[in-house]
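Tokens in:
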């Protein structure tokens, strides 16, 4: 059902409601209106990397890991599976008359905020630090969730509009101040592009933006989102954010004033309790029939588009046997293999020869950890394969020895029940193993919605373990399982033979990592973030200026650059040419030769560089990506399409303009910075765009 038809039906239904009934529907746990045949509906559901908080589901790699695939096609396939499982679960929930929280089809995902600061605890919920990558991965996720059928398969929601990226502890009363240039260049593009992609929901942030709470910000909601961008879906508050308007922001004095301020600004749905005061606001003429009616119509338009009121409900033939089924686990495995980023591979140490490695020690707090696979906003998979489990399966002729070696972050002596100070146990395993795989990193307790990171250096106890293991066993591979910038220390970086960023790789992640170690799949992931040295002096966390932040404006050398990633094969970028250049689009054709011995998935990246006398411009701006399969010795030609939106300079007053100098395009495996070359990235090709 298209938007216009659904809107007409919603208008007709809402016209039959009283003002009180309309207001009752503007909360996330909307009650039934039996006289109109309306069932209760709970709008709150989560699907960051799988159907979350609702029992069994495929647990895909965390969002930041999906971004590391640099493959919109892979992300769209994963999101399509998520919505399939969502329908399967919804069908059974309706059958059993279970309409509780996390049972509906309106998913408050994806999180498309920009990961501007490596300390932000929720950064791993995002698609990284770059607005272009966030836009294209977000678009793919939304298309997979919503489907292309007559009805929405499920509803996606871009959040948190706008700007929010920490600090988490301050978010309920924080005022994020961002200039017009940073807003238009960094914080808003992903929202604009996902609106263009047809996202049906947008969630407002907790914080204020330039002095006005995000969920009562008319300039953001009415003028920009619905006005300039033409958004037609529903707008929902973050949970409790409308109460923050009076309790923490002190923007108004009472709950009824806060409810009216949000509704009048265009916030249709309240996740929280504050809209319980809409009746008071209505009686005092703080808001009116027009605002209440419009909000209800926006919400019921979505419910009609989902097919809720159809006699033959769409997608009702999707059975529960689809939930975390074998087919979905296979896609999960393939996705996880695409997300791993090979950072270091000294003298081609990897892959390991399964026939020759007699023993492998798997050491570290993530060796057997399920939380290290899951990330957050997760479902519960029917099967988890940790790194130790995966290595046992793949290296089935090798002796596999396992020790956690230490806790995630507690450097303590053994307590009466043991299992605390066990570094010597991990080192002992390393001492009798041909190869040691060190599974280090974090989990949601150290970076998440509950708090930001205090340091971007790996916890001291893990560094202590890693240094001791590397001293004991020179054949050590480090796997970093985390969702953000983590420095493992110079000694470990220099002594480890290979380093892999494994992220929170999902329920099949351990098997994916093992297959990469064995060379059954060549790594192809790329960093969607800049990894900084642990002792870097970062800008103030509360400063939302982009100066000195991310690869686009960094002023120092990174540890590992955005876009970087190695493979088991080598490639050579040969000729590149512009095949089309018009006011909206540039098309570039490039030829890539696989000069190595492994079949690979190459992740082509195009960066733009331009100067403009009117404003500060990015060091580089990613503007196109394309994964291509290249067999050993094969040459593949690929064409990439560049939207000129990403080739514009953004002036200090927030206007996108053609640069007043030439534009240079760089096509290659990574960005064209010196650090990527030092780390072994192949040379790309430079062409000028007239």
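Residues out:
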């Amino acid at each position: 059902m298209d938007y216009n038809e659904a809107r007409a039906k919603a208008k007709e239904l809402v016209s039959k409601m009283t003002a009180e009934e309309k207001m009752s529907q503007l909360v996330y746990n909307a009650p039934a209106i039996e006289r109109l045949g309306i069932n209760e509906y709970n709008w709150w559901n989560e699907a960051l990397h799988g159907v979350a908080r609702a029992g069994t589901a495929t647990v895909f790699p965390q969002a930041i890991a999906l971004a590391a695939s640099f493959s919109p096609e892979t992300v769209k396939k994963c999101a399509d599976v998520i919505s399939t499982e969502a329908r399967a679960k919804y069908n059974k929930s309706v059958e059993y008359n279970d309409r509780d929280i996390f049972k509906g089809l309106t998913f408050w995902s994806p999180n498309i905020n920009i990961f501007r600061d490596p300390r932000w605890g929720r950064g791993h919920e995002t698609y990284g630090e770059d607005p272009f990558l966030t836009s294209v991965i977000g678009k793919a996720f939304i298309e997979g969730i919503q489907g292309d059928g007559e009805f929405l398969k499920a509803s996606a929601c871009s959040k948190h509009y706008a700007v929010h990226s920490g600090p988490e502890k301050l978010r309920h009363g924080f005022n994020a101040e961002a200039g017009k240039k940073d807003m238009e260049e960094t914080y808003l593009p992903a929202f604009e592009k996902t609106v263009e992609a047809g996202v049906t929901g947008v969630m407002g942030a907790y914080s204020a933006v330039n002095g006005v709470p995000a969920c009562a910000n008319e300039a953001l909601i009415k003028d920009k989102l619905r006005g300039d961008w033409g958004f037609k879906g529903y707008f929902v508050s973050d949970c409790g954010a409308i109460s923050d308007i009076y309790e923490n922001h002190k923007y108004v004095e009472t709950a009824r004033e806060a409810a009216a301020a949000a509704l009048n600004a265009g916030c249709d749905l309240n996740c929280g309790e504050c809209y319980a005061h809409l009746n008071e606001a209505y009686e005092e003429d703080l808001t009116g029939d027009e605002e209440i009616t419009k909000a209800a119509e926006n919400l019921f338009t979505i419910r009609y588009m989902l097919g809720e009121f159809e006699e033959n409900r769409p997608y009702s033939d999707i059975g529960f046997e689809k939930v975390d089924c074998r087919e979905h686990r296979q896609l999960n495995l393939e996705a996880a293999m695409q997300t791993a980023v090979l950072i270091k591979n000294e003298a081609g140490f990897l892959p390991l020869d399964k026939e020759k490695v007699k023993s492998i020690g798997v050491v570290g707090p993530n060796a057997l950890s399920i939380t290290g696979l899951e990330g957050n906003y997760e479902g519960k998979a029917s099967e988890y394969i940790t790194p130790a489990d995966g290595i046992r399966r793949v290296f089935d002729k090798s002796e596999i020895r396992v020790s956690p070696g230490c806790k995630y972050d507690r450097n303590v002596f053994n307590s009466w029940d043991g299992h605390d100070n066990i570094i010597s146990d991990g080192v002992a395993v390393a001492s009798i193993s041909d190869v040691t795989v060190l599974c280090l990193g974090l989990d949601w307790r150290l970076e998440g919605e509950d708090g930001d990171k205090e340091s971007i250096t790996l916890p001291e106890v893990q560094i202590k373990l890693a240094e001791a293991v590397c001293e004991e066993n020179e054949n050590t591979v480090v796997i970093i399982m985390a969702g953000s910038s983590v420095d493992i220390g110079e000694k470990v970086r220099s002594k480890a033979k290979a380093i892999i960023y494994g992220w929170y790789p999902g329920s099949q992640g351990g098997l994916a990592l093992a297959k990469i170690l064995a060379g059954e799949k060549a790594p192809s992931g790329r960093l969607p973030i800049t990894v900084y040295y642990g002792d870097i002096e970062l800008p103030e966390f509360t400063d939302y200026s982009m100066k000195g932040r991310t690869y686009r404006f960094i002023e120092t050398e990174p540890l590992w650059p955005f876009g970087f990633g190695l493979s088991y094969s080598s490639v050579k970028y040969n000729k590149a040419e512009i095949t089309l250049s018009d006011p909206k689009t540039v098309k570039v054709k490039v030829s890539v030769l696989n000069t190595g011995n492994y079949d690979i998935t190459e992740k082509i990246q195009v960066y733009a560089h331009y100067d403009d006398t009117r404003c500060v411009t990015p060091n580089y701006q990613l503007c196109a990506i394309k994964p291509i399969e290249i067999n050993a010795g094969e040459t593949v030609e690929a064409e990439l399409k560049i939207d000129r939106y990403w080739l514009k300079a953004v002036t200090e007053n927030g206007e996108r303009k053609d640069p007043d100098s030439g534009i240079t395009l760089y096509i290659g495996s990574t960005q064209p910075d010196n650090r990527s070359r030092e780390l072994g990235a192949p040379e790309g090709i430079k062409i000028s765009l007239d």
